[in-house]
Design a protein that fits this description.
This protein is mainly alpha-helical. 77% of the residues lie in helices and 0% in strands.
Length: 79
């Protein structure tokens, strides 16, 4: 599964590989919260705030309140 692969890559310190796999996963499943969150976080780390905001907006549009709370509490203070 791509989702497992990018998580393992990220945890193993292979962030570029994780981003590539997350983007691939997102192309098949555009509503994947974990892929969107990983990509937003990676963009923030690179300083690409414009791209990060696009992922954050996509996450914000999802219905579970926990996702919105996670976005506001974790990502927004950094942008």
């Amino acid at each position: 599964m791509l989702e497992d692969a990018y998580r393992v890559s990220l945890l193993s310190g292979r962030s570029e590989e994780a981003v590539k796999l997350a983007k691939r996963h997102l192309s098949h499943k555009p509503d994947s919260p974990s892929a969107l969150l990983l990509l937003a976080t990676a963009d923030i780390a690179k300083g690409d705030i414009v791209s990060a905001r696009e992922y954050i907006e996509a996450l914000s549009g999802m219905s579970p309140p926990l996702q919105k709370q996670s976005i506001e509490g974790v990502l927004i203070p950094y942008i």
